[in-house]
Each structure stands twice: as C-alpha cells, then as structure tokens.
Design brief:
about 25% strand; alpha/beta; about 120 residues; 4 helices; Rossmann fold; two-stranded antiparallel ribbon
Length: about 120
C-alpha cells in the first residue's frame, strides 16, 4: 500500500456484490494510499459493518444494487452517521430514487480517476 497517494490515511469500506469488481476497486484505492475494508456484498452485512465500525470509516463506496436489493438502507445509515459515500451504478443519476439523487455517484465501469475525484479530501 502506498503511503503518499491522494487517499493516504483514509479508511474506505467497499460495498460491492461483484467480487472481481470489488477487488479492482480495492486495488485502485490501495494504490492511492487508502486502507480498504471489504468488499462486503450484501445489504445486511453492510448494515452490520456500518453499525459496528461507523466511528472508524472515512468513506464508503456503495453499489446501488446488491444481489437485486437496492442499498438505500445502507445509504441512510451512512448519512445518519455523517459518513461520506459514493453510489456506484451502471446507470445514470436517474437510476437513483428521488431521495438519494443528491448524493455523489460514479458510473460503472469506474476509473481510478473517478474514484479519487469522488473521495479525495477537498
């Protein structure tokens, strides 16, 4: 893991049900110096992880669709804990329900530059 990337020192949870994509995201984030947790692939697992680890998370990458289930409960829990997150989806912003469209999102396939731009401290 690099210690000098744009995300150095950030703990980032990856919530993604496609293992290979999750690994790719993990590699991209670690390449920028992040400490990456996961990937977690189901809504219930993500909810448990957030409940237990909220105080330790800096950011979350959140797949919109986890095994056919929308990840909105996870997004809502993250918002309650003031944990920044980015939705990932293969669709545009219109795929998000009205209540969640204001949150940042990246479109799959995501690039390292997209992730860094969405997560890097401003």
């Amino acid at each position: 893991m690099s210690n000098d990337g744009l995300l150095a020192g950030c703990r980032i949870l990856v919530v993604e049900d496609d293992f290979l994509l999750g690994q790719t995201i993990l590699d991209m984030l670690e390449g920028e110096g992040a400490e990456v947790l996961g990937p977690v692939g189901a809504v219930d697992e993500a909810m448990t992880f957030v409940a237990e680890q909220a105080a330790t998370l800096d950011h979350v990458i959140l797949d919109l669709n986890l095994h056919g289930v929308r990840s909105y409960p996870v997004a809502d829990a993250l918002a309650r804990h003031n944990i920044p997150f980015v939705f990932m989806t293969g669709y545009g912003r219109d795929a998000l329900d009205e209540a969640h469209r204001a949150f940042p999102h990246c479109i799959k396939p995501v690039t390292r530059g997209d992730l860094v731009a969405a997560l890097a401290p401003r």
